[in-house]
Amino acid sequence: MVTLDGLVWRIIPSNSVLLFLLFSSIEGISSSLSRDTMFDLRSPLKVHCRAAVKKSENQEDENMCVICIKEKGLELPDKSILARCFAYNRDGAGIMYDMNGWVRIEKGFMSFNDLWKRICELDEVIGLRNHAVVMHFRYATSGSKDPGNCHPYPISDKTERLRKTVTKCRHAAFCHNGVIPEYSFPNSALNDTQHFSKRVLSKLSKVDKYFFHREETREFLHTLCRSKLCFLDSSGQIYTVGEFKQLGSCKFSNLNFMNGI
């Protein structure tokens, strides 16, 4: 059993697939689900999860923040595209990339010039074309507006680690686009994504460091938070939750920054 913010989940390894079964704690959910029941978006469990998190169907359309994904072997977006991403999401930016079997995070760029300067430095030193790169541009909806609250984040339940502006992760790191109201606390310095990491993702990680590799798990997370997530693992593989849109060689969690073009 694993408790995720007051909800009791049973995580059952079966044929190398994590199965998520929700028991008790929410009115109307049966505790008699079969041990072999897999999480499936077509199953009644989807309805129960939606009822539990009380999300509207158009939650994703809020499009807070933007995530930019560049896979290994591809070029970075033009400077003008990244400048527009920052102009529409001015509360700080960050970058994560794979390097020598680690995921490295550098964040807290509160101006576009600082971000672009660092990108150019990294490109000159390590050649970003040869690495998976994920950038996040923040539009703050909860928590403090400061370098420590910028994305990306380690998958951790430690506040200090979540707020560290330069760090590396042995297994994976992630970032988020959207709003998770149940984890947005008015008097908290931390934002909803950081609370979601502390209360949900870090607990899944204790069961399986690469839980996000599994399609069933990503579907579960999508139903739970009704927004978009991006995970980068230490081998340079990228996994997404929610719909991302192609623009040139890269994918973006939304294209709001292109409005007016």
List keywords for this structure.
alpha+beta, seven-stranded antiparallel beta sheet, 27% strand, 25% helix
Describe it.
The longest helix has 16 residues, at 192-207. With 261 residues, the protein is of the alpha+beta class. 25% of the residues lie in helices and 27% in strands. The chain contains six helices and 14 strands. The chain has helices at 44-53, 79-88, 112-126, 159-162, 192-207, 215-225, and strands at residues 2-4, 7-14, 17-23, 66-70, 93-99, 102-109, 133-137, 153-154, 166-169, 172-177, 228-233, 238-241, 245-247, 250-252. The model is unreliable at 10-61 (pLDDT under 50).
Strand order, sheet with most strands:
9-6-5-7-4-14-13
The secondary structure category is alpha+beta
Radius of gyration: 18 Å
Helix count, DSSP H or I runs of 4 or more residues: 6
What order do the helices and strands follow?
EEEHEHEEHEEHEEHHEEEE
Major beta sheet, specifics?
Answer: 7 strands, antiparallel
Poorly predicted ranges: 10-61
Alpha carbon gap, first and last residue = 50 Å
Strand content: 25-35%
- The number of distinct β-strands equals 14
Shape, per Cα inertia axes: globular
**Overall average pLDDT:** 83
Helix proportion: 25-40%
